[in-house]
């Protein structure tokens, strides 16, 4: 009997070995197919403008909606994963992404693209990416940090390959047939999802798809609702429903953390403001180069250069930030990367020659690698891990709003002035101001904490005022992974 129990325990530990590496490979492909996909939209920008006689602002709504839904759909994906598991969410996302791009090939107006490629494909990409990253938390425990670092290279691969493939297909068969082919390519997300089989414990239960009554507080909430439903007092029933809704919002959108934790508050506001300008070069760099006489194939190569450099620099940045010297100081390294990203935009204002633009892409991609590698690591530093999932929900929704409105507002400014330089002026303004705000605010917060410590004033809740690094060690094998952790990446 003991031998049978040992065999069962061995079979119930797929983490960090065996099939887990196949799941990691599938996650790398998912990130390349989903997060890397919006990088190619700039290749079609000019053709879509001519096809639908649309302005810069109208055309830019299409990629803005796609990226905003990709990031902002996190809470919806979280609910889907809790109900049906990661495999179902990924495969559903693959079907939605494919259906959105196939439908886009038949669109007769730019507004129809907002629905098909923007909303449907964006939502499908969100399900694929976020559920794909979540499943790594189940398959990797001791090597979870390494697995997430390897998985993030998929974004860089997508940045490299999608623009080149897009330009080739666009030259050969036009944008409609290209979108049709993209629909077939995105169906591969379903194949990746099929690989992500649920992790089975020794008891035979599946830890990826808990039943609603097994969720923390699920039975209590169900009892409250049932009591409220049978109550003869409508006021009590209404109060119970309001309480349940508030608990649901508290679970997925941590407004209490935002109000109480000063570090989280500063960081969320800073990143949200930063996103107003962060996506602008990705959308407008290719049209800007083409307008200034750069050949279309070489213009598409610019985005690929950013992707290639990201492949090598992003892991190095992650290793550098993990050094003990940066413990508690990662926010300043992040602010420096944002500042360099903003300053690099002035290179495009100086000249639009291909050699100058290549130099810009090199510097911009180095800074972008730092932002991508540190964004969620800093968030883990300022928020307790037991509330990380809900804090991330509010964080991604707020940044998706600015990702949505940033490119169209800048496109409207370009339409009015007929000058693409305002794209890079705007991007620099938002990035530099966000970097200074975060760096100076955390510096002031740290000084305030030191003064309070020196005066020995007791604090009832230090997390309200203090920026400190929270422990992020991987869980032991005896502990089951969190029910849902959805992580986004830039």
From TrEMBL:
Stretches for region Disordered: 207-236, 459-482
Transmembrane helix recorded as keyword: yes
Gene Ontology molecular-function annotations: monocarboxylic acid transmembrane transporter activity
Pfam families named in the record: MFS_1 (PF07690)
Xref: SUPFAM superfamilies: MFS general substrate transporter
Residue stretches making up the Major facilitator superfamily (MFS) profile domain: 20-451
UniProt-listed PROSITE patterns: MFS
Keyword list, A-Z: Membrane, Transmembrane, Transmembrane helix
InterPro entries, per the entry: MFS, MFS_dom, MFS_trans_sf, Proton-linked_MCT
GO CC entries: basolateral plasma membrane
Transmembrane portions of the chain: 21-45, 61-81, 88-106, 112-139, 146-165, 177-196, 266-287, 299-319, 331-351, 357-379, 391-410, 422-445
Origin superkingdom: Eukaryota
Membrane topology, record value: Multi-pass membrane protein
Protein name, per record: MOT6 protein
């Amino acid at each position: 009997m003991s031998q049978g129990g040992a065999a069962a325990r061995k079979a119930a530990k797929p983490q960090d070995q065996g099939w887990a590496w196949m799941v990691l490979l599938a996650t790398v492909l998912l990130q390349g197919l989903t997060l890397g996909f919006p990088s190619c939209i700039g290749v079609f920008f000019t053709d879509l403008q001519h096809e639908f006689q649309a302005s810069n602002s109208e055309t830019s709504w299409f990629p803005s909606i796609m990226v905003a839904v990709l990031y902002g759909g996190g809470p919806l994906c979280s609910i889907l994963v809790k109900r049906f598991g990661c495999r179902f969410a990924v495969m559903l996302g693959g079907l939605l992404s494919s259906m959105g791009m196939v439908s886009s090939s038949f669109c007769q107006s730019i507004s129809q693209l907002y629905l098909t490629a923007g909303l449907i494909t964006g939502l499908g990409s969100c399900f694929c990416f976020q559920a794909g990253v979540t499943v790594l938390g189940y398959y990797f425990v001791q090597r979870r940090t390494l697995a997430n670092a390897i998985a993030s290279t998929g974004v860089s691969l997508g940045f490299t390959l999608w623009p080149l493939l897009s330009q080739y297909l666009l030259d050969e068969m036009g944008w409609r047939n290209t979108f049709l082919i993209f629909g077939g390519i995105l169906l591969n997300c379903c194949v990746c999802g099929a690989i992500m089989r649920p992790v089975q414990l020794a008891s035979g239960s599946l830890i990826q798809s808990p039943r609603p009554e097994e969720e923390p507080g699920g039975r209590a909430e169900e009892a409250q609702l049932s009591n409220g439903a049978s109550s003869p007092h409508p006021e009590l029933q209404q109060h119970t429903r309001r309480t349940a809704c508030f608990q649901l919002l508290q679970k997925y959108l941590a407004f209490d953390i935002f109000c109480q934790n000063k570090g989280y508050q500063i960081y969320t506001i800073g990143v949200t403001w930063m996103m107003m300008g962060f996506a602008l070069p990705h959308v407008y760099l290719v049209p800007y180069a083409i307008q200034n006489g750069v050949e279309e194939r070489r213009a598409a190569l610019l985005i690929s250069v950013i992707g290639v450099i990201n492949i090598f620099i992003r892991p190095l940045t992650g290793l550098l930030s993990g050094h003990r010297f940066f413990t508690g100081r990662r926010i300043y390294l992040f602010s420096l990367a944002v500042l360099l990203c903003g300053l690099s935009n002035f290179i495009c204002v100086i000249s639009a020659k291909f050699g100058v633009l290549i130099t810009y892409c090199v510097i911009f991609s180095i800074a972008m690698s730092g932002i991508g590698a540190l964004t969620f690591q800093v968030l883990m530093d300022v928020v307790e891990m037991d509330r990380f999932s809900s804090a991330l929900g509010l964080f991604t929704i707020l940044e998706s709003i600015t990702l949505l409105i940033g490119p169209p507002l800048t496109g409207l400014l370009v339409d009015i002035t007929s000058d693409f330089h305002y794209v890079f002026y705007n991007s620099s303004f938002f990035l530099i101001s966000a970097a200074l705000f975060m760096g100076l605010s955390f510096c002031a917060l740290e000084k305030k904490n030191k003064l309070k410590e020196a005066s020995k004033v007791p604090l009832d809740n230090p997390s309200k005022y203090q920026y400190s690094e929270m422990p992020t060690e991987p869980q032991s094998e005896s502990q089951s992974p969190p029910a849902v952790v959805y992580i986004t990446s830039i």
